[in-house]
Design goal:
Blueprint (H helix, E strand, L loop, with lengths): L1 H29 L4 E7 L18 H8 L2 E3 L2 E2 L5 H10 L3 H4 L15 H7 L3 E7 L11 E5 L9 E4 L2 E4 L4 H16 L6 E6 L37 H5 L4 H4 L20 H11 L4 H21 L3 H36 L6 E7 L18 H4 L3 E4 L8 E3 L3 E2 L3 H8 L14 H4 L9 E6 L11 E6 L2 E6 L5 E6 L17 H17 L4 H14 L1
Parallel strand pairs: 1-8, 1-9, 2-11, 3-12, 4-5, 4-8
Antiparallel strand pairs: 2-10, 6-7, 9-10, 13-14, 14-15, 15-16
Bound molecules: 2-deoxy-6-O-sulfo-2-(sulfoamino)-alpha-D-glucopyranose and calcium ion.
Calcium ion (CA) binds next to loops.
Length: 533
């Protein structure tokens, strides 16, 4: 009996060892699963990406991804703020189920993530750049991430071995780390997932020194809603604190030396930030900064703009810096694509370019994000996979960041676990639309907090949007995106939308149920947040 037992164990062991060997061989010899390069920026509005809109800037390298792949014109996030978007990306689950509803929450690493699953299935996994989830990255063979928001100039990085400071500009360095991974760290017998997460173009919009003045003296068109007065909207739009004229800091945001600001700024904090940014530069770099921003300061002092002039002046300053950071993103994406070409990897590498959410570039007079209105709800999404996707495709399907995890797993031939709430976009790559969705769900929570955007949830169909603002108000908004693409007129309770309103309510209730969100959860989270804030 004992011998039989030992014999059975040996056979089992042999079989499983054989399986492991075969798996290894399979990787070495002939693994046709794609590599994945996932590039994500922080706050890149589609308005500043010329594959979508060339009014503000030309981005030839990002456009290349679109030209050689597919451009999603209706890509959205599910909670338009940084850490929550990253948690959605990793888990494929909405914020109410993935432990991160706002930038305060800590990511629960016990959850199933798509990098973790890819890793279990023989992928090598690496992430470089912004992380923002507070707990340490798990499921990665290599990681080197910015602490919290990170710095643009000479940034520090968290690594498994502690904090390391790098010389240079964040977007260049993060790309260098990705290229170094491809050249020297990678196990060439395995397919890889390489996540390249830039800090740019996040506030305070610090361009690399060579592009500090790249957008100065250019005609920068103003959006038609720059001077929005929030008429025909609800309380939430009026009470948000993200107006360029009133809430953008002259010092850290617009680069006016605090010495030149006559009226004390609303928060001295921003002046401290201004000095801490400037003081990261070497003496040589400070000379370049002074040469560019010196004349800007002189102009400001001479003009002393007020009212509408101040709004116009600050908007232009904002765009000059924001676009400078985007130009560097575009260069660096070009550098990474060229490297994939050189290594002969381009054909079977799925490249994603996206942002953690959109951003207001002056629409409604705003900067920042958070609202379910189009400029911050939408996000750029370009995907290239030459062996599987024909070039120059455009999709108008409603896709959302909950779909990333299931899509990338599907590309690797892996079924997403049931708990993931998104859908694989793979069929859309080939133009299939069957059984796709007709509405998207959204829920934002970080209130009261910086920018004071009230809590809200809602749905968007192809044509309409229904939003409920709650917590310290109880207001509904309804927009007809066909007749009112800039969302300037709340149609809620207008007789002409009565039927649509009813249908949208019905749809919202069914999506809340489907995704397991509820009023009860809203109440639990409010109580929890009141203890934390
Ligand atoms: C910082 C910014 C805010 C921004 C949040 C969240 N202020 O607090 O304007 O909304 O980050 O951004 S700053 O003066 O410190 O830059 S997020 O992308 O991380 O969600
Ligand atoms: Ca962001």
């Amino acid at each position: 009996m004992q011998y039989l037992y030992i014999f059975a164990i040996s056979v089992l062991c042999l079989l499983s060892c054989n399986r492991a060997d075969r798996k290894e061989d399979h990787f070495r010899r002939n693994d046709d699963r794609p590599n994945i390069v996932f590039i994500m920026t922080d706050d890149h509005g589609f308005q500043a990406l010329s594959a979508y809109d060339s009014t503000l800037i030309r981005t030839p390298n990002l456009d290349r991804v679109a030209r050689e792949g597919i451009r999603f014109d209706r890509a959205f996030v599910s909670n338009s703020i940084c850490a929550p978007s990253r948690a959605v990306l990793l888990t494929g689950k909405f914020s109410h189920l993935n432990s991160v509803r706002d930038n305060v929450d800590i990511f629960d690493t016990a959850q199933v993530t798509f990098p973790g699953i890819l890793h279990e299935h023989g992928y090598e996994t690496a992430i470089f750049g912004k992380w923002h989830l507070k707990s340490q990255p798990t499921g990665f063979d290599y990681w080197k991430v910015l602490p919290d928001q990170g710095q643009y100039y000479h940034p520090e990085f968290l690594t498994p071995g502690g904090i390391v400071k790098e010389e240079g500009y964040a977007t260049d360095i993060i790309t260098d780390l990705a290229i170094h991974y491809l050249d020297s760290l990678r196990d060439k017998s395995k397919p890889f997932l390489l996540m390249v997460h830039h800090k740019a173009p996040h506030r305070e919009w610090l361009p690399p020194l060579e592009y500090l003045d790249a957008f100065h003296n250019r005609n920068i068109p103003e959006p038609p809603t720059l001077f929005d007065d929030y008429r025909n909207r609800g309380t939430a739009a009026r009470s948000a604190e993200m107006r360029i004229a009133d809430h953008m800091a002259l010092s850290s945001d617009n680069k006016i030396d605090p010495e030149n600001i006559a009226r004390k700024e609303f928060l001295d904090w921003y002046q401290t930030v201004y000095y801490s940014q400037y003081n990261r530069l070497s003496d040589y770099e400070k000379k370049r900064w002074d040469a560019v921003y010196g004349p800007v300061n002189e102009e400001y002092v001479k003009m002393s703009p007020e009212g509408d002039d101040l709004m116009r002046w600050k908007y232009r300053r904002y765009m000059e810096d924001y676009l400078g950071t985007i130009r560097s993103v575009d260069d660096n994406v070009g550098r990474l694509l060229a490297h994939l070409d050189e290594l002969g990897l381009a054909g079977n590498t799925l490249v994603v370019y996206t942002s953690d959410q959109g951003f207001y570039l002056g629409e409604h007079g705003w900067f920042d994000k958070r609202f379910m209105y189009e400029p911050s709800f939408r996000t750029p999404l370009l995907i290239r996979w030459p062996e599987k996707i024909e070039g120059s495709r455009v999709s108008r399907d409603l896709v959302q960041n909950i779909d990333f995890a299931p899509t990338l797993l599907a590309a690797a031939g892996i079924d997403a676990p049931d708990e993931m709430q998104g859908k694989s976009m793979l069929p859309l790559f080939e133009g299939g639309h069957e059984n796709w969705r007709d509405a998207l769900y959204y829920h934002y929570y970080e209130y009261p907090s910086i920018h004071m955007v009230k809590r809200h949830y809602g749905i968007r169909t192809e044509r309409y949007k229904l939003i409920h603002f709650y917590y310290d108000i109880d207001e509904w908004e309804l927009y007809d995106l066909e007749t009112d693409p800039n969302e300037m007129n709340n149609g809620y309770n207008l007789p002409e939308y009565a039927d649509i309103q009813q249908q949208l309510h019905f749809k919202l209730d069914s999506l809340r149920k489907l995704y397991r969100d509820s009023e009860e959860l809203d109440r639990i989270f409010i109580e929890k947040d009141m203890r934390t804030f």
